[in-house]
Amino acid sequence: MRRPGAENEPSSRHSFIRWAPAAGLAAAIVLAVGAVVWMRPLQPSGVPEPAATGQPSRGQTAEVPQPQQPGRAVPPEPSLEQLARVDPPRYEPPTLRNLPDEATARFLRGMEHYRKADYANAVEDLRRAAESDPDAAHIRFFLGVTHLLLGQEDAAIDRLQATIALGDSAYLEEAHWYLAKAFLRRNDLGAAETELRKLIQLQGSANDEAGRLLSQVERLKDRLGLTPSRR
Q: Are 175 and 147 in contact (CB under 8 A)?
């Protein structure tokens, strides 16, 4: 029997009875999930470490393959034609205070042609100047060089040897140098070596250049098989 006043009790009791089974089920699910999480092995926080792939660790330095350096190309040895190449010696006309004599006048006229690379006309004036003054070293020297620039090796050798025969002069070293070039033009490597050695013995300003040319001539003789074998 319903006791008096029962109709006035709140309906909360009936709601609790109605939701109790659902609450128990939810609690069981939460406990089950917690147990699964607790039983899993612990992982460090952050990004998981990648599997070993053979890469070096932070404490090691990776060896970067270096490209192979190509060997230096050895420049080819100069040929006989290159060694015999001639550059005309520089000439600056002097300032004359007095009227020149016949030899000097012809020399100056010839050197004007020389400076313009007109060697054919230069050689004529220089030859006449040499006839007027055969003991002038500068006339003999430039006459010999002009013959050499014209490809007249025999005449050049004759004039340059005459310049050297005059003895010590301002053109002695250059005369040996261009005489060696003239012998190279004639493929006479032995005579060219002789002149270069004489030039080196003078211990002048052309000493180093003569030494380099002499070494090149000696190597050329070895390549051509002109050096006698040493036993």
A: no
Compute CA distances 7 → 2, 11, 12, 13, 16, whole Å. 8, 10, 13, 13, 18
Higher pLDDT, 121 or 231: 121
DSSP conformation letters of 42-74: P--SSSPPPPP-S---TTS---PPPPPPPPPPP
Return the CATH superfamily for domain 99-223. Answer: Tetratricopeptide repeat domain (1.25.40.10)
Per-residue pLDDT reduced to its tens digit, 45-81: 444 454 555 555 555 555 555 655 555 666 788 999 9
* Percent of residues, the chain, with pLDDT higher than 90: 58
Round to whole Å and give the CA distance between 209 and 211: 5
Q: Nearest Cα to 180, choosing from 202, 195, 190, 167?
A: 195
- What pLDDT shows up at residue 200? 96
Q: CB count, 10 Å around CB of 180?
A: 28
Tell me the two tokens of residue 226. Answer: 């002109």
